[in-house]
Amino acid sequence: MPSNETAIITRQLSRVFSVRLKSEGLAASVRNFFSPVYKNVEAVVSLDMSINRGEIIGFLGPNGAGKTTTLKMLSGLLVPSAGSIEVLGFDPFNRDHDFLRSISLVMGQKQNLWWDLPPVETFEIHRRIYGLTDEQYKTRIDELIDMLEITDCLQTQTRKLSLGQRMRCELAVSLLHQPAILFLDEPTIGLDILMQKKIRNFLLDYHRRFKPTILLTSHYMDDVAALAQRVIVINHGSKVFDGGLRELTDRMRPEKIMTVVINNGEFPCKMREGCRLIHHEGQLYRFLVSRELVGELAACLYTTGQIADLSIEDAPLEEVIGQLFAAGDAPPKPSA
Amino acid sequence: MKNLTANLATLAAHFKIILTYRGLMLIQAVRLLLLPMVLASAWLSIEKTAENPYSDADYLLYYLMVPVILNLTDSRLVFRFPLSVRDGSLSRELLKPYPPLAGYVLESVANNLIQLLYLLPFTLIMGFLIRDRLVLGHLTLPLLGCAAAAVLLGGLLRMLVSGSISLTGFWLEDVTTLNLILNGGIWALFGGMIIPVATFPEHIRQIAELLPYRYMLSFPIEILTGRLNSGQIAQGLVTTIIWAGCFALIARQVWKRGLKVYSAYGG
After folding, report:
1. Which A residues, 73 through 92, put their C-beta within 8 Å of a C-beta on chain B?
2. To the nearest 10°, the Cα dihedral for A90, A92, A94, A96?
3. Chain pair A-B, CB pairs under 8 angstroms
4. SS3 of residue A38 by DSSP
5. Residue A317 in contact with residue A221, Cβ under 8 Å?
6. What residues in B contact A121, CB-CB < 8 Å?
7. pTM for the full model?
8. How many other C-beta atoms lie within 10 A of the C-beta of residue B80?
9. Looking at the partner chain, which of A78, A109, A125 has a beta carbon nearest the beta carbon of B264?
10. Which of A69, A110, A127 would best serve as a mutation to test chain B binding (most B beta carbons within 10 A)?
11. How far apart are CA A92 and CA A86, in angstroms?
């Protein structure tokens, strides 16, 4: 039984697509015409997850892992093949209007804005559809325009906006009704680094103010690192990890990366087990060091007085996730 | 009330979009005006037989009204909806607390209303120019009311027929051929576009009166020609309502099933 704090809960959620196979060659095409062959593709397999209100979840997985399919089921676009979903107590596929008023799905490659009209017109239609009062509309739109810095693009036909401007307007229209749950599917795809950062900062700011539950998919690990409090990783449609980012890093890459630049001469400390040199170029050394040895090695280096620079960091998230994806054939047991 | 304001806002948005595409309006104008004018000329030039109940005045009034009625009962649903299933943009509509097909219907309505901007003046001017050859004395307010009701119901029926065909887009990659057969060729023949239904040979006319197509175009104009008595008008209106009800049920069932197979492409 989900608590009042639970926003999303799925039990044994599965989705199977029937895909028609087409072999190569004319003869195969003729054969296929009279006797089509189908294959069942399991996009999502027995997915159990529980997300509390106000959480920001990074929903990760390689291409074709089932992320978007899951988001579509959670938002009511796709009917599950098996299992159950509750989003704010609703069955999404019933498309109850109260449910639809509580969610928003932003897909980086699809758009909610009317292509031939300026964004301000879409806002106006959206306002009518969601039944916002004049006061609600004015307060919210002013706030969003300010936070997203979109004053300049409001009157321009959507088709003539840059990708970054369009994405920010997309966010504005999707948040106008202040959804309790926000599904973000690759919201920064195709954007330059500066714009990605702007969107991330906006989402953090928006979450701080309004506390929506956010389920975010992104292939940009900077998005995930900056926004997600918890990550759920799926591969081949199944959950392979559910927990904090730190927990994920600790599990997949228990070592830290220590980069040392020494002043001159030989490396001044003796290497021991749990410390492995992975790169050496001139005075620069890079080691993979087990967490318990990090302090000891750093102390040793400092006492020699030979250090020009020293940095200690976790393995890049891309590598951690990549390692988890690569382990897809023998996934670690889900932790939650 | 909420839906009404949303509908008006959506309708207004479609007006604005249509007005940005002036070229498309011109093409629509050619489509709506050219064929009826050609057909009118053809039917006026042939010799009338004793079996043909239509006089030149009837043909003139009939084809003068065809572009207006054709436009008012037109539906663009079949062009827009299957496309949105294929490219996944239907998802946008499904995620709103608003009837998902309303936008497509309102786009059609907006398009039909915009075309009146030139269709009505054209019809009035043409009517004025051929006023000596038109017989309009029989037009009374009740008759005009019946014709208006027939146009509304005919428009609804065509929308539902187009809608039902459009919804097969959940399964078919291309519905245009199906539309061309069911809502194009057969409609043009039995709807009275090519030949007024009243001038069909008796047994074919009886078939035409049973099919839904007559009520999408010919029937409202037949009312205007004054050749139908009140019983025939009532029968026609009831037949239109029955067909509309049948197609509403079909559309509802197809929609329900279609949603289950809709895979919201991508990802």
Report:
1. 75-79
2. 60
3. 75
4. strand
5. yes
6. 13, 16
7. 0.82
8. 17
9. A78
10. A110
11. 7
Q: Reduce the DSSP state of residue A139 to 3 states and report it.
A: helix
Backbone phi, psi, residue B18, to 5°: -60, -40
What kind and span of H or E run contains B239?
helix B230-261
CA distance linking residue B96 with residue B76, whole number of Å: 22
Reported ipTM: the value is 0.81
pLDDT in tens, B75-109: 888 888 999 998 888 999 999 999 999 999 999 99
Q: Give residue for tokens 């008796």.
A: B202
Gap between the Cα atoms of A107 and B264, Å rounded: 12
Q: How many CB atoms lie within 10 A of CB A254?
A: 13
Average per-residue pLDDT for chain A? 88
B90's tokens: 């239907």
Round the CA-based radius of gyration of chain B to a whole number and report it. Answer: 19
List all residues 6 or more positions away from B207 whose beta carbon is below 8 Å from its beta carbon.
B190
Burial bucket for residue B196 (CB in 10 Å: 0-12, 13-18, 19+) = buried
> Are B266 and A112 inside 8 Å of each other by CB?
no
| Residue A29 to residue A35: CA distance in whole angstroms | 10
Range 39-98 of B in CB contact (< 8 A) with A: 88-89, 91-92, 94-98
- Under DSSP, is residue A107 helix (H, G, I), strand (E, B) or coil? strand
One-letter identity of residue B66: V
Cβ distance A190 to A163 under 8 Å? Answer: yes
Paired tokens of A293: 């040895």
In chain A, residues with a C-beta closer than 8 Å to the C-beta of B6 are: 125, 128-129, 131
User: Predicted confidence band at B143 (pLDDT cuts at 50, 70, 90)?
Assistant: very high
Tell me how crowded residue A23 is: count the other CB atoms within 10 A of its CB: 10
Residue range A139-147: average pLDDT? Answer: 93
pLDDT, tens digit (0-9, with 9 covering 90-100), for A206-264: 999 999 999 999 888 888 888 998 999 999 899 999 999 888 888 877 788 999 999 88
Using an 8 Å Cβ cutoff, are A236 and A298 in contact? no
End-to-end CA distance of chain B: 37
Q: Note the pLDDT of residue A292.
A: 85
